[in-house]
Amino acid sequence: MSKKSNRSLSKGKAKAKKQPIERFWETKTLDEMTRPEWESLCDGCAKCCLHKFIDDEDTTDETELMPTTHIAEGEQMNYSNIACHLLNDKSCQCSKYEQRTVLVPDCVQLTQENLDDVFFMPPSCTYRRLKEGRGMPSWHPLLHNGKKSAMHQAGMSVRGKIIKDDDVELEDFEDYIVLWPLHDID
Ligand code: SF4
Ligand code: SF4
Predict the structure, then answer these.
(1) In whole angstroms, what is the distance from residue 136 CA to residue 129 CA?
(2) Cβ atoms 96, 86 nearer than 8 A
(3) What residue spans define the domains of the chain?
(4) What is the pLDDT of residues 29-87, one digit of tens each?
(5) How many Å lie between the centroid of ligand 2 and the Cα of residue 132?
(6) Which of 2, 8, 51, 116 has its CA 20 to 30 A from that of 176?
(7) pLDDT tens across 138-162, in order?
(8) Which atom of ligand 1 is nearest to the CA of 92?
(9) Which pLDDT does position 57 carry in this prediction?
(10) Which helix (H) or strand (E) holds 78?
């Protein structure tokens, strides 16, 4: 018996009709979106998996590397190119997505309920863009059949730019502060 490849078996099938995407982000507020719609807004850039540091005059040597949940007026958020050790640096996906909040307690999980935390996200983050009324960027995977290539090509993801936090001493973070995560286009 000859073995057919999946490619030859699918040859006779009618070509799937390409469905126009429903631009729900233009007609619904973030609060009105269904959970799948909300989840699909994440572009997968992984900038939120970078370590960030806030310049705070009250910081002491003891509190310097402690997590914080707020930023005060006048304080500045600095991004580093140090990424969480659980990040897959090629796909820009979390390698332990289901267990992430247990394995990395300060992993920020943005939901419709804690949308006020969106200021922790970089300016190019789709949630932040939509919250600030700046719309969907042209490179977003939702506008490219779910593919991330336009985003990588536009330099909007972390791919090729990071070092993992288990490869550096976090107290040397100042050596790793970078500006590119603050970059946004469109
Ligand atoms: S920065 Fe925003 S859009 Fe990018 S991966 Fe994180 S949550 Fe998703
Ligand atoms: S646990 Fe996963 S989602 Fe959270 S910061 Fe690390 S790589 Fe990113």
Answers:
(1) 7
(2) yes
(3) 23-57+73-182
(4) 999 999 999 999 999 999 999 999 887 666 666 655 565 656 666 677 899 999 999 99
(5) 24
(6) 116
(7) 999 999 999 999 999 999 999 999 9
(8) 5
(9) 66
(10) strand 76-83
Are 14 and 55 in contact, with CB atoms under 8 Å apart? Answer: no
Predicted model pTM = 0.84
Helices assigned H by DSSP within the chain: 6-9, 24-27, 35-40, 100-103, 126-131, 149-153
Give the pLDDT score at 68.
61
Extract the tokens encoding 23.
């631009």
> Pocket around ligand 2: residues whose beta carbon is below 6 Å from it?
49, 84, 86-87, 94, 100, 104, 107
Ligand 1 atom with the smallest distance to the CA of 124 is 1
CA of residue 139 to ligand 1 center, whole Å: 13
> Per the structure block, which two tokens stand in for 51?
């370590």
Q: How far apart are the first and last CA of the chain?
A: 56
